[in-house]
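Deliverable D4.2, example record:
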Amino acid sequence: MTAEALPAELANWPAWTPGDEQLAELELLTSGAFAPLAGYLTAVDLAAVAARRELADGTPWPLPVTLTVPADAVPADAGHLVLQDHEGSPLAVLTITERAAADAADAAGGLLRLAGPVTALRDPEHGPFRRLRRRPADVRAELAGEPVLAITTRCPLHRRHLGQLRHFADQLRARLLVMPLVGGPADVVARPEALVRSVLAAAQHLPAGTVVVPVPLPPRADPADDLRARAVVAAAYGATHLLADPADAAGLPAGIRTGTVRLPGIGVQVIVEGEWAYDPISEVWRPLSLIEPGAECGELTGGEMDALLDAGDPVPGWFMPENVAAELRRARPPRRERGLVVFFTGLSGSGKSTIARDLRDVLAERGDRTVSLLDGDLVRRLLSGGLRFSRADRDLNIARIGYVAAEVARHGGVAICAPIAPYAAARAQVREMVTAVGDFLLVHVATPLEACEARDRKGLYAKARAGLISGFTGVTDPYEEPDDADLVLDTSVMSRQEAVAAVVALLTRGGWLAPEPAEGAGNTRNDGSPAAQGRHGVTLVVPGPPGRAG
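Output generated by the structure prediction step:
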């Protein structure tokens, strides 16, 4: 079957849109980055890979590559499945040769693992930096005939990386191939385009002729498989050597922590160098063994780097070139300028809408942040009209709120959301959407059901108890209390002013708001008792004096 013969038949075949990570792996298959693999592995192939790092026919291949789809995406008699992008454009066709339950846990959830060869229909449409997204064969042709040292990275490169690349490239007399991995989130900067910008800035400090190629390789949970996947892709693009961080040693055969090793079935040598550190006397990064004991400076930890960027403090020049640090600041501005979503969840009548409105007013009065309020009832009328109260419709409503809130955060604003949001999975989806572009705080307004029902200003609980309303959260539908809230409030035992003050204090302590001396309190409640520590060390408000927020 050829790509030219397929389009006329597409209308008769089922179609499905994979998630981002599966779309990334599909591109690796169809571009040749996973050569010689031509499709998704069968059970026999998977068993052979696990046992011998080869396919059932003896072809060397080191890692599992599978496709999992909902069972209802593929009719039982279907022999083909069209795989399409998020806009519905066909990318490839899978000829189904095998279908099975994804695994014992997924069988109950109706997930299938499909296997078979894949035929590409067209190249995917790339967004930013599409000029850099070159096919492996083209890069191989450019680099042919000379040693090539590659590095694959999900994080911005700093001076240790640059020093090691120059050192080993000089030893090997090799060209450099830098491959930012844009399948999945990037470390520190989150967005793949920000990772590419930072890598391009770092490449200015590398030898002329360095090639930068973004690659859509998603991360793998198993360190060994993750390293094998990086090595496979590096070899496909023409690398003869792959520089790996010491952390990648977990993916190497037992006992190998430094030096050069060839992974079975992969045509690239993996170099793992021992510990390097900054030598303040020579003002260079070098192997730790060459530095006077006690004089070395280690790398900044992820937490230290996060703290510098969150506060807007400068990144030390000995750790990272200024032009790279500038890209990090662009991608991750200080919290006082960063987009933020404050997401209130709680039962009907818990007080979340009142607190959300008052918080909006406080921030509007301050004037230092742009604020948008997405209240539950307002969204139902303007954004989710026509949706009912089934779980599917509730989840869609929350997804719509999350999408709008994430767009507000993307542009540096503060979005305040106040839906009931009863399901943990839907809340987690919003958190994931938002954290790709900004920050997310979950506030659980944990007012007890009895107090909410006693207020019942709209008579909704009474109607639900009388059977006039079905699917009412807290009565006939469940509310899944969050275990990941950044702040917990109970408006049956605190006033609306105290509740809003607690949220403002959280935003101030976290750096999203500048401190206001006149309103400097916030580490204790009004009655003077200390606040308990909640998730990530932020304040968990302990019930205080009686009062209530309507």
